[in-house]
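Interim report, section 4.2 (structural modelling).
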Amino acid sequence: DAKTTQPPSMDCAEGRAANLPCNHSTISGNEYVYWYRQIHSQGPQYIIHGLKNNETNEMASLIITEDRKSSTLILPHATLRDTAVYYCIVRGGTDKLIFGTGTRLQVFP
Amino acid sequence: DAGVIQSPRHEVTEMGQEVTLRCKPISGHDYLFWYRQTMMRGLELLIYFNNNVPIDDSGMPEDRFSAKMPNASFSTLKIQPSEPRDSAVYFCASSKLQGTNEKLFFGSGTQLSVL
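Predicted structure of the assembly:
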C-alpha cells in the first residue's frame, strides 16, 4: 500500500469547517483513499472513501487532487463530538487496511 | 443490527495466564479482522479471515497468539501464556467486501491488562 503523510495534530473552532490534509504521492492507479476516525476509547469508524472523483456523504466531503497525490477531508461544520484521531489510508483491491498515526483533531468551543 | 460485539470489555489477568478474547461479527459479513492498539505501535493488524478461513496471520506477534473462527458468527483470539507486553486494546472488525468498496465495522474493543 502507498504510504500517507498527515499532520500529527490540528485545531478547529466549533461550527467552522475542519480541513484535514493527506499526502499520498506514491498512490497507484487502482488504489482508493479511505478515511476513518477514532474517537477516544472507541473503535475506528469509517467516514468516506474515493478513487479520483470528489465524494460527499452525510459525514464529510473528500476532495482528491487531479494528480491524486493528495486529498483533503472536510467536516463542514465541526462539533465537539468530531474531536478524534483521523486516519487517511490508501488501499488497493483486497489489500489489508493499514492504519498510520493519523491526525489528532481537537475541536474547541 | 447490533454491530460487532466483543467480550469481555475489560480483562485483567496475571502474567502466564491464558486469555481468550471473543468477537461476534455483523451477520452476513465475509471478513473478520483482529487489530491491536498500543500507544507505542498504534493500530496493528494481527490476522484476518475470509469465510472463516485465516488469510493472513503475518501480524500475529508470536506463537503465543492464536486465532480461530469456527463459524461465521464467532471468532476468538487467544494468548497463552500472556505477558505484560501484551497489554493493549484489542479490536475486532468485520466487513462485507463489495468490490473495492470495503468498509470495516469495528467493535468497542477489549482492554487487556496483564500484570
